[in-house]
Amino acid sequence: MKNIFKSNNLVLALSSIVLFGSCSEEILDQENNNATSTANFGSSVSQVESAVNGAFHPITDTFFWGRIIHTGALLRSDEFNIFPFGSNTAMSTFQGNPGDRWAVEPFQQLYKSIARCNNIIINVNDEGIPDDDIRNSLVGQAYFLRAFDYWYLLNLYGSVPLITALPDLDNLLVDQAEPTAVWAQIIADLEMAEEMLPVSWSGDDLGRPTAGAATALKGKSYLYMKEYPLAITALQSLVGKYSLLPAALYGDNFSATNENNQESIFELQFLGQTTFIWGTDIPGTGTMGNYHIDYAPPTKSPDQSHVVNPWLKDLFESNADVVRRNESLAYDYSGSLGYGGTDFLTDFSGDITVATDAGVEPIFSKKYAGLDLGTREQVDFLGTNVGNNWRIIRYADVLLMLAEALNENNQPDLAGPFVDQVRLRAELSTVSDLSLDQTAMRQAIIDERAMELAGEGHRFFDLVRWGLADDYMGATSLHGANPKSLSGGTFQENKHELVWIPGSEIDANPNLKQNPGY
Hints:
By secondary structure, the chain is mainly alpha-helical. The protein contains 19 helices and six strands. The protein has a two-stranded antiparallel ribbon. Strands 2-6 form a two-stranded antiparallel ribbon. A two-stranded antiparallel sheet has the order 4-5. Helix 7 (211-224) packs antiparallel against helix 8.
């Protein structure tokens, strides 16, 4: 699927030609055969395929997963101690407020994608595309992507407008929906996607969302809603349909090789491209891994980046977890390597000095930092030649979510074997034979998610839904030190669980209400 983002985006607009001078009414009444109008949209497979690709583009673009979601949101977790870099890091250090950067772009990109999904869902029918399988495979992707879009809107911004219709020019000042209504729409869309999407794709379509991806996101949604029996049913249905990579290939879950593999349930497709135009929504731009800026070490990143907080290193070491540590963190351990397989102490010498001078341990991110792509000189500092697909949902994540749902349903004995599968792949001892009660199993799952999914964008959302964000990132952190000590920012309960509604959106629509604390 790497090449789908280089296909033409479908821009749905009415084209009109005004001819000045002497002419007849018949000359004025012409169709532009090179444009797609609202009247003829959905009349060909290639046309709708282009529209589906266009609905993905805002998501992989620089202004969402391509970069800004990381700078502004995912780096908020206690994994990362951010070197402050003006307004670029204000959100990730809990120091931002309406008017600062990076809340606007994700909000707009997600709604842009939603609008394109709505158009596909509403206008593509059996008259335009009679073949049921082809039509369902296209419309099913729109249902999945709309659910994906609303999932992130809900968990980033809280109460958001719920729009499932085409634009109504007489009713543009929409209200925010209750989160329960948005969750209900997410579930409804995913159930449609489950029915319509194929079990797998092949060829150039490999990597598109499948029925299994819809089920996984549905199970994850039920888990976040604390609907544990429903989460168990959804996630249990995926057991055995995917498999974990062996320990020796654990790093393939993040590298540019072996993408869309047996462990991958859904990943966003990226392609290193030199045709980079910042935030432009046109084909062939914006779908490279500019997220590299945020995960690269300090001297490699134009924004100074971060160090990883010591608690995560200590967790790996206390579990003797070498398999996952070696692919997640770069620091001075036996065999530690930097870019292009260079010895860590040599390759990271400048970064070590930066961290030491700042009074923090020199521990750095490895996942999605481009270390697998070559030497430092070979990896562009903006990430334009970084094409690693970002794995959104892996089977290991599904196993741990299933274990959590079972444990929260007061079945810790049934949860243990699913934790064990993940730990055995990491060549660690199992937890099932420890006869853990619900509280102990809960902590085991929390720790396991921290190690298995380190740096993959899950931790902050996990802490919020567990009610632990203030415990670990607040003024009296259980880590013993402020995880944002480099900036001095501190998590504030009943505020920083969400980011602010963009001020520009409130200015344009006074019906929108700002989130608490901002």
